[in-house]
Amino acid sequence: MRVLVVEDHEELAETVAAGLRREGMAVDVALDGHAALERATVNGYDVVVLDRDLPGLHGDRVCRVLAEGGSRARVLMLTASGTVAERVAGLGMGADDYLPKPFAFTELVARVRALGRRAQPALPPVLVRGDLRLDPARRTATRGGRGLPLSPKEFAVLELLMAAGGAVVSAEELLERAWDEAADPFTRTVKVTVSRLRRKLGDPPLIETVAQAGYRV
């Protein structure tokens, strides 16, 4: 899942981003509204965690531009004010969910995951392909009942491949949705990750390479 955290308090932004990365998400950070819109134009985010009270370009304006521009990203709006009127106003701007500050990080993660599921076609809570089972909520993967010790990136790649339902997923899409903007698009990182994933999944092979197209399970 690709997430953009928009928060002008740099320390808080980096803390939230680091926590979401530990949950296996690819996270970029923007410290103001203008930077947020620039990143959202270039990258395909699943969820935008948006502080409402941004200086300069207000969070309300960012949310409205994203909504009116047809962005598929779901917006979780954060604010220090948790009144009903504030929540109604935020949702009216196009936000998909609302979380008042201060918040419990576990709740933030749960809401981001829920919005991420809504950003994609409806999927079952547990992805199954033959004897391979992947539970995104519990962050567990098993094959033939055997637990798979996957790294966060390996888990993210496998989740994207299984969610595609047998369709081919290009290396470019895997790189965009499983890594953040710091990833070098010219590296072999996707190929290396898929290779490690294949070894951990074992035999018979489950991940097929489709020449000049990508990968599929």
UniProtKB/TrEMBL annotation:
Sequence ranges assigned to domain Response regulatory in this UniProt record: 2-116
InterPro entries in the record: CheY-like_superfamily, OmpR/PhoB-type_DNA-bd, Sig_transdc_resp-reg_receiver, WalR-like, WH-like_DNA-bd_sf
OmpR/PhoB-type domain span: 124-217
Organism: Streptomyces apricus
Family matches, as CDD domains: trans_reg_C (cd00383)
Keyword DNA-binding carried by entry: yes
Designated name of the protein: Response regulator transcription factor
Modified residues (4-aspartylphosphate): D51
GO biological process, any: regulation of DNA-templated transcription
PANTHER family: REGULATOR OF RPOS, TRANSCRIPTIONAL REGULATORY PROTEIN CUTR
MF terms in GO: phosphorelay response regulator activity; transcription cis-regulatory region binding
Pfam families per UniProt: Response_reg, Trans_reg_C
Domain of life: Bacteria
One GO location term (cellular component): cytosol
